Amino acid sequence: MSSPCVITVAITGSLPTKKDNPAVPITIAEQVESTQEAFEAGASLVHCHVRDDEGKPTSDPARFARLLEGLRKHCPGMIVQLSTGGRSGAGRERGGMIPLKPDMASLSTGSCNFPTRVYENSPDLVTWLASEMKAHGVKPEVEAFDLSMVFKAAEMAKAGEIAGPLHVQFVMGVKNAMPVDRPAFEFYVATLKRIAPDATWTGAGIGRDQFTLNRWSLELGGHCRTGLEDNVRLDRTTLAPSNAALVKRIVDACPQYGRRPATAAEARKLLGLPAAA
Predict the structure, then answer these.
(1) Cys-Cys link to 79, which of 45, 98, 176, 192 (CB 3.0-4.6 A)?
(2) Are 21 and 228 in contact (CB under 8 A)?
(3) How far is Cα of residue 198 from the mean position of the Cα atoms in its chain?
């Protein structure tokens, strides 16, 4: 029997613009429509940022609330994950949407270099974000940009700061952070299995490496992330017609690896989330 794969679609991010790719959804209505198309194509989890009226990234909880409402209406059962990333705000404002109680929220457990800046996640901020997620029943997706973040997540889980089981996303291909390297990827997977045996994981590649990580993840039994956020962020020559088209690329590849896209209900079980209301 084929093994289900949770397909995450990162619909917009904080950097791609209409100039980069006209398919990038910016407004709340565009994001809901694009997510619905991706959901119908086979995605079971959506990773969300929001933009202000000028198209700039923001952490405004009111905009997240409108997006969350639209997604729950038009994509019933889909797992909604809100971003607490640093491009949309500073300090604790990055977690201002956690009380909205999405299914999941992203959590980077350390700092690293990005193309032109430091992606700063101080220990105090990481602890606070994790405590907010735990208080509101929001499952973290640990975004690991290097190996130390995996060890930190396992340490936090053992201390009860993160409710288990862990779900970790291995991010490769960000300039100045972890490059796309197959032996390093396999070491990531083996290390997570060793220190957190009940953890689940997703592979995420940036730009032209997006599908490389998709294929590796399908092969090694993990889950996949795709979407216009990653597809055009660093490699603006690799443009896709839509988020749904990127999801379909994974769906079409699944049978080659004895896999199939997980339904929303299956994805919830696999990631230890409650059934949709």
Answers:
(1) 45
(2) yes
(3) 19
What pTM was computed for the model? 0.97
- Note whether 202 and 208 are within 8 A (CB): no
* Domains of the chain: total: 1
Q: Which two tokens stand for residue 239?
A: 């443009």
Q: By the 8 A CB rule, do 81 and 67 touch?
A: no
CATH number reported for the structural domain that contains residue 171 in this entry = 3.20.20.70
- Please state, in angstroms and rounded to a whole number, the distance separating the CA atoms of residues 99 and 95: 8
Residue 234's pLDDT is: 47
Q: Which domain holds residue 191?
A: 3-270
Q: Which two tokens stand for residue 219?
A: 């092969």
Query: Which residue has 């079971």 as its token pair?
Result: 44
Tens digits of residue pLDDT in 146-201? 999 999 999 999 999 999 899 999 999 999 999 999 999 999 999 999 999 999 99
Instruction: Determine the Cα–Cα distance for residues 32 and 11; give it in Å rounded to an integer.
Output: 9
- Radius of gyration of the chain from its Cα atoms, rounded to whole angstroms: 17
Residue type, 114: F
Residue 103 CA to residue 271 CA, distance in Å, equals: 10
DSSP state, 103?
S
